[in-house]
Structures are given as structure tokens and as C-alpha cells.
Amino acid sequence: MKDLKKGNQLRRSKKTMRKMIIGIVSITIMLFLFQKVISPYQNKYGLHPLLNKKITLMIKEANQKGVDLRIIEGHRSIVEQAYLYSKGRIIPGNIVTYALPGISFHNYGLAVDVCEFKNGKPIWNSENWDLIGSIGKKQDLIWGGNWKRIVDKPHFQLRIKDLY
């Protein structure tokens, strides 16, 4: 009886996984077709002009405090987002985002990932994340380091109210 229950659970699990994969692929294809409409802003990282200004000020203040802060990623395409969303779900590895393609602020140039550098290399486990977060919050940015579900210290994004 136990084996029968396990077999049924496995079949349901595979069916659910297939539906999820089909859903992700369908959404990605649909959004990819409309990606021309969702184009990045015309600056180095494809950032909204207000975010670009705030991040520039943030990096300047961090540098004044001895932290070599650099942008790692700004605008992210729908296809890139689909790949990241698939990690830990259908691609081996850890889950790195809960944002479906088209849902991430990165897809619209409204978010950025930064990191401190030392000797030309990113320091992902930097002891300065709290300082970096406070500098970003001074610019009235939302900091992923304050999130509960998935703490994302490199992530900063505009507030919706800043867009209106």
C-alpha cells in the first residue's frame, strides 16, 4: 500500500513539474515576443533615469567611505529572468529568485544589483553590506537586504511612488 501511495505521489509530482515547465516556457515565449516594447533605457546598465541618478550618488558616497561599490547588473531581459527563475526548479542549483519573467523590477530597468570590489574582484560576503544598505536607503531605495523571504543584499530598486 505504501509503494502505491509513493507511486501516485511521484506521478502527481512529475505532472505538476511538467505543468510548471510548460507554464514558464509559455510565459517566457509570450513575453519574449513583446520584449521590443519592454526596452531598457539608453544608459550603460539600462536603468530608469531616476534609479541611475540615485545609484550614481550611492556609489559616490560608498567610495567616499572607502567602499569600492560597482554595479553588477541592471536591466535584465525576460529570457535572462526565465533562466534565473528556472534555477533550483528545473535547472540544478539553488533558487535565486521568486520573480517570474516580466515580474522582476530588473526587467524594466527599475532595479540594480551592486557589489563591493577588492583587488578587482567582487566580495559577495562583504562586511560592509549594512553600510551599503544604509547608503541606498538614504537615496530612498528599497534594499533587498531587508527582505524576509529571500535576502538579496546586492539588490536595490525604485519605489513605485517614484514613478508617478
Quick summary:
The chain is an alpha+beta fold and 164 residues long. Helices cover 41% and strands 12% of the residues.
Q: How are the SSEs ordered, and which strands pair?
A:
Layout: H1 2-33, H2 49-64, E1 69-73, H3 78-86, E2 111-118, E3 121-122, H4 129-138, E4 142-143, E5 155-157
Antiparallel strand pairs: 1-2, 2-3, 2-5, 4-5
Helix pairs in contact: 1-3, 2-4
CATH class: Alpha Beta
Per DSSP, the total helix count is 4
Helix content: 40-55%
Count of all domains = 1
Low-confidence stretches: none
- Structural class of the helices, strands and pairings? alpha+beta
Shape: globular
The average pLDDT score comes to 86
Q: How far is the first residue's CA from the last residue's CA?
A: 60 Å
User: What sequence of helices (H) and strands (E) makes up the elements?
Assistant: HHEHEEHEE
CATH architecture: 2-Layer Sandwich
| Largest sheet report | 5 strands, antiparallel
CATH topology: Muramoyl-pentapeptide Carboxypeptidase, domain 2
In what range is the share of β-strand residues? Answer: 5-15%
Find the count of extended strands (DSSP E, 2+ residues). Answer: 5
Gyration radius over CA: 19 Å
